[in-house]
């Protein structure tokens, strides 16, 4: 019979000076995820697209706030910006055009332990998904919604979007956009969103700051993040970029974020306007309201088996 020889290293010789003892189960500290851990496919965006910086800052947020793979959920609709979940190595869904919010609402209401982030574009959010934006805002369902606003439909190659300014020439408005654009900030406030902030991809520290503040808000937190489409609307946001001769002005320190009228006034300023948190109030979330109803129902049916509850309901319907 062959004997297997086990090599035992000489701990005093060579460069083996110490061998770390294995950590006891449950005592090892879990390291925060790095970009390497959460980055999936290489983004298929055009070189220079503003969406790259939003993704990079999302990775930074995950690392900085020690969010774990199993606790991050990234949802989006359809569009260039909505490709976002493909590039994040964690749970997520690239859902139907304009329907990211209802899908995310189901996740939020059933899994309150998750950090739920929804990303998407101006077309996805305010055109086909416009109604969902209003209703998710008023219902105050806990999630963070970051709209990467580039004032155009990028994926479908340059159609007018609800945020395209008057006169913008596109494939659907060859002589220039005729319709009054919507103002996302005003719309979010009016619809009942409880956290409304504005940022721009050209100021990374500010984007991260807004993402953190939004994530910490207990309710529906909305961020309008200007994100330039270099292919179909180059230079759209130059006036907000100091490196392009523009100005980046933050919301004044004395602004009262609970003052709806003051927030509305800020939202009405001409471009480039201000950047920061315009509005933030506490109002019961749908998550909390539903949880109360569920707890009360559970109390009433305490000790009953599932089939007995079901039977009781059927009997009631007779
Ligand atoms: C039901 C449906 N209607 C239309 C489309 C075509 N479509 C795909 S993305 C898009 C607009 C995307 O614009 P936006 O949300 O601003 O994202 P961007 O590409 O600019 O990031 C449209 C109209 C579709 N995929 N599904
Ligand atoms: S088309 Fe525009 S929005 Fe889409 S990836 Fe290219 S630059 Fe970005
Ligand atoms: Mg767009």
Question: Could you explain how this protein is built, in words?
Answer:
This protein is 31% helix and 14% strand. It is built from ten helices and eight strands. The chain has helices spanning 35-38, 51-64, 100-110, 122-126, 130-139, 184-191, 204-216, 260-267, 286-300, 306-317; strands at residues 72-76, 91-94, 115-121, 143-149, 195-200, 220-226, 249-250, 274-280. Helix 2 (51-64) crosses helix 7, helix 5 (130-139) packs across helix 6 (184-191) and helix 6 runs antiparallel to helix 8 (260-267). The protein has an eight-stranded mixed beta sheet with strand order 2-1-3-4-6-5-8-7, sandwiched between helices. The protein has 318 residues and is of the alpha/beta class. The site of iron/sulfur cluster has 12 residues, from loops.
Provide a concise account of the structure shown:
With 318 residues, the protein is α/β, with parallel strands linked by helices.
Fill in the keyword field for this structure.
single chain, 318 residues, alpha/beta, eight-stranded mixed beta sheet, 10 helices, binds thiamine diphosphate, binds iron/sulfur cluster, binds magnesium ion
Total of DSSP H or I helical runs spanning 4+ residues: 10
Beta fraction: 5-15%
Unreliable residue stretches: 1-21
Strand pairing plus helix content: what structural class? Answer: alpha/beta
Strand count = 8
Distance between the termini: 78 Å
Write down the overall geometry.
Answer: globular
Strand order of the largest sheet: 2-1-3-4-6-5-8-7
What share of the residues lie within helices?
Answer: 25-40%
Ligands and ions found: thiamine diphosphate, iron/sulfur cluster, magnesium ion
Rg (C-alpha, Å)? 25 Å
Mean pLDDT: 92
Order of helices and strands: HHEEHEHHEHEHEEHEHH
Largest sheet: 8 strands, mixed
